[in-house]
Specification:
By secondary structure, the chain is mainly alpha-helical. It has seven helices and no strands. Helix 2 packs parallel to helix 4.
Length: 201
């Protein structure tokens, strides 16, 4: 009886083995190319800009570094028939790792974009949303974003200084001046989203 039970158990294991093996699937390979990583990082930056986790100053710094890396990749590929050598790819990967850490750190630190519930604040927030959309779609390059956010950072600093000097409020002339600056920034965002320059994919 014990021998029969043992034989039946062996038969069951042998029978279920191939069936089990057929249901095991291999996970799809992760695409981790230089271009895939660039696109992923731009999406993360766009999310940070839109959520307010990345301030204009933080975005300016990160996108400035992204722009430098993009120029380096372009130069390396131009010198090697459109390809990166193994050493170049390794170097670019290290730089992308550092950028990825910076994006994470800046999105999780104490600095958060604050706009206020007023006309100037709404316009500043609206412009950040437009910048985020331009980053996500690739209509704004990293360099264009860095320049635009540099301008936005200047406006933010002006707002803080004006409010600090007036008990947290903006005077009529200050609002007029800030609206003038925001108009210029708005035109810059529009031009950069509609020119021929596109973020490399």
């Amino acid at each position: 009886m014990k021998r029969t039970l043992f034989a039946l158990t062996l038969a069951a294991v042998a029978f279920s083995g191939p069936a089990f093996a057929q249901t095991t699937t291999t996970p799809a390979p992760q695409s981790n190319t230089v271009n895939d990583r660039r696109e992923n990082q731009q999406d993360r930056i766009a999310n940070g800009v839109q959520s307010g986790q990345l301030t204009a100053g933080e975005t300016k710094n990160i996108e400035g570094r992204e722009a430098n890396l993009n120029r380096e990749i372009h130069a390396d590929r131009s010198a090697d028939d459109g390809k990166l050598t193994t050493q170049e790819r390794k170097q670019v990967n290290n730089q992308q790792n550092n950028l990825s850490k910076s994006i994470y750190t800046d999105k999780h630190n104490a600095n958060v974009a604050h706009y206020g519930n007023n006309e100037i604040g709404q316009r500043r927030e609206n412009q950040q949303d437009r910048i985020a959309q331009g980053i996500r779609s690739g209509q704004m390059t990293a360099g264009e974003t860095a320049r635009t956010e540099n301008r936005e950072q200047g406006i933010n600093q002006q707002v803080r200084a004006d409010r600090a000097a007036n008990g947290g409020k903006l005077t009529g002339p200050e609002k007029t001046q800030l609206n003038h600056q925001l108009n210029g920034s708005s035109r810059q965002i529009y031009r950069q989203k509609h020119n021929a320059a596109k973020q490399p994919k």
